[in-house]
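Lecture notes, part 5. Sequence design as translation. It can be helpful to think of inverse folding as translation between two languages: the language of shapes and the language of residues. The source text, in structure tokens, appears below.
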């Protein structure tokens, strides 16, 4: 998330929660006040639904407060003075009886200051369910940092160290989370393209996987990074603990035709498989895109020459800015990224220098009057306050509240076509 939007940016506390809640049969037990529970409970269920019913009466028992996810010890002022012993002793068996395969007890930032020994509580509870404790999620660290630390804690607990037999032609996807907008559609699109080449996704680490997927992650030939910000610590950890190589495609996430082609070819070359079937799918999508763009351009002259702003992680910003400029002929007026992957940030700056747009790097979004704004829902909504006509495309959470029913993607063939559709319809609406 870019620096001028830090007031909206979730931190490492949220990152740790979504890492655990991104595992189908794992659960977060939050040691903190109720104020820390409701947003994260709703976020987890909205991004990866697991409950069969949303009737709050089904979850009216203590600690759940009408939500199926993220039960909480509901600490009050007394607990902050005298500790949360009684509540932790009561809540652990309740959560363990829900049938989860793993429970992660996570301190809220305030609870981390109390000094309760979570490991002692877990040991004394003597539960049949494996439990881990995350006592400090990193005060105000980026979301990606907290996500990775939680993933590491899970893998250290449940993944055996022995060297399993490798499944040829299989990979793990790392650097995706349920916090990413349209993460399910992105996983499905990547899986389809890889599957066309005979490559199987062994596990998508902490993004819709289950514990058995994680337990067998070392069977994959290689890890492939999607978002570098969410894999920087995981890559060396996987190498040191499991002896696994991690492949980091040079153009960032597979967004747009060029980056998707590069991403697929990089993976196929590493696994020594033929990339032609996936490249054929990409070419088919290019033809659909070309036809739609030709019709729109004949009527309006757009999108060539339209301006855009991007506020996103570097792993998403690099392929997006490259594609918008080189493929669609659009002009950047603002490109903002947070601190995450210096190599990708430098590539963005180099591109902007080459096209004589150096001044748009980390520029003020409100000064450029972009025709299309790519960013979180909060960024898009805030830019509407300028009163200028533009179209907003939400790349990340928090969203503006639009309810998506049909699965969507930003990555791969379908992602590129979806973005083209959004761009040309958005520009048409601003004419």
């Amino acid at each position: 998330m870019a620096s001028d939007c830090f007031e909206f940016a979730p931190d490492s506390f949220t990152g740790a929660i979504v890492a655990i809640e991104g595992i189908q049969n794992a659960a977060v037990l939050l040691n903190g006040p109720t104020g820390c529970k409701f947003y994260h409970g709703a976020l987890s269920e909205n991004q990866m639904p697991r409950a069969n019913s949303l009737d709050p009466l089904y979850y009216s028992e203590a600690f759940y407060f009408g939500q199926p996810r993220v039960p909480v010890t509901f600490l009050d002022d007394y607990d902050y003075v005298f500790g949360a012993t009684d509540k932790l002793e009561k809540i652990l068996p309740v959560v363990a009886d829900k049938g989860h395969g793993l429970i992660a007890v996570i301190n809220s930032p305030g609870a981390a200051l109390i000094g309760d020994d979570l490991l002692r509580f877990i040991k004394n509870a003597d539960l049949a369910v494996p439990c881990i404790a995350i006592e400090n999620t990193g005060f105000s660290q980026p979301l990606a940092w907290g996500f990775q630390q939680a993933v590491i804690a899970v893998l250290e607990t449940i993944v055996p160290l022995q060297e399993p037999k490798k499944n040829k032609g299989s990979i793990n996807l790392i650097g995706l989370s349920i916090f990413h907008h349209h993460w399910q559609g992105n996983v499905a699109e990547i899986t389809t393209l890889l599957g066309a080449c005979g490559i199987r996704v062994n596990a998508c680490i902490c993004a819709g996987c289950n514990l058995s997927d994680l337990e067998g992650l070392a069977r994959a030939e290689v890890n492939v990074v999607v978002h570098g910000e969410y894999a920087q610590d995981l890559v060396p950890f996987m190498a040191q603990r499991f002896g696994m190589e991690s492949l980091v495609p040079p153009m960032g996430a597979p967004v747009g035709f060029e980056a998707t082609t590069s991403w697929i070819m990089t993976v196929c070359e590493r696994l020594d498989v033929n990339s032609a079937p996936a490249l054929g799918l990409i070419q088919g999508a290019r033809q659909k895109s070309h036809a739609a763009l030709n019709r729109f351009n004949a009527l309006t002259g757009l999108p060539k020459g339209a301006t855009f702003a991007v506020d996103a992680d570097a792993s998403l910003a690099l392929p997006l800015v490259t594609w918008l400029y080189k493929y669609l002929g659009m002009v950047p007026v603002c490109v903002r990224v947070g601190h995450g992957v210096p190599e990708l940030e430098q590539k963005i700056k180099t591109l902007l220098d080459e096209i004589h747009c150096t001044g748009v790097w980390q520029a003020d979004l409100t000064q450029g009057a972009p025709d299309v704004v790519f960013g979180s829902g909060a960024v898009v909504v805030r830019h509407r306050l300028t009163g200028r006509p533009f179209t907003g495309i939400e790349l990340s959470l928090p969203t503006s509240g639009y309810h998506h029913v049909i699965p969507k993607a930003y990555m791969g063939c379908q992602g590129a076509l979806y973005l083209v559709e959004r761009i040309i319809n958005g520009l048409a609406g601003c004419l």
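The translated text above is only one of many valid answers, since several sequences can fold into similar shapes. The chain has three domains: 10-141, 167-277, 287-430.
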